Amino acid sequence: MTTNPTDRGVGLGMPELPAPAYPDDVRVRLEADAREVVARYPDSRSALLPLLHLVQSEEGHVTRTGMRFCADVLGLTTAEVTAVATFYSMYRRRPSGDYQVGVCTNTLCAVMGGDAIFESLQEHLGVGNGETTGDGKVTLEHIECNAACDFAPVVMVNWEFFDNQTPDSARHLVDDLVAGRPVTPTRGAPLCTFKETARILAGFPDERDGAVAAGGSAGPASLAGLKLAKGEVAAARVVHPRDGGPHDAPRGDGAPQQGAEHDPAPPKHLSSHDEPEQTSASDPSHPAGPTAEEGE
Q: pTM higher than 0.85, yes or no?
């Protein structure tokens, strides 16, 4: 396989060494899958992200062979493919475990115990951040917000949620993964391996769809907004001024607001968050004291 003259190494600007090719049977299979992926897009270049998931599903990480394959299929340089593969953290650049165990250590999860969970798992598994256990089962990493703050602290395994974790429950979780015992996410579909997850992310049928209920569903906190939109719960209570009077209350000097007697009644607010803030000027019952300059 020849090297595209525009392909350059990252270091000293030397031409990139040719990547080893997939075996013929693997390449034929991947080419058939790639044609299906590319056909979904009006511009073939748009298929790069799912194609990277596709090659990741083959070896468990994005190899030079996989990037060369994507470049050949899409008519890109390996430099263009590498730029994308190295930008997104969802693409692994080195061998990793069957189960990617990510512990959220963003602010809320950290405050609720995420940092303690991550430190406990590092000690328990004997690995550092981004490292894989010797048996190739588990890769541990700390990850950014999973948009599940109402269930903090959250651990994800191959992008499936395990909510409200503790150091003890997280240790039991990874022990089950290593031992090959069944593990059920808090919600969503049953767990599958990282390679299987990568193929699903490439856009191929998720064979787990019929068993989503087995893994539970979103919890009450996540569904509150949906229920409100459907009218299944009552609207938020309107919070009125402290004195129980109208919104056009007198100014701090006791005089009525200009035009208050002619103003129509203000619209009701849907949420207490929409209510005007009560300040010393609008709330004579709670006046502010003199400033430091006024007291001198």
A: no
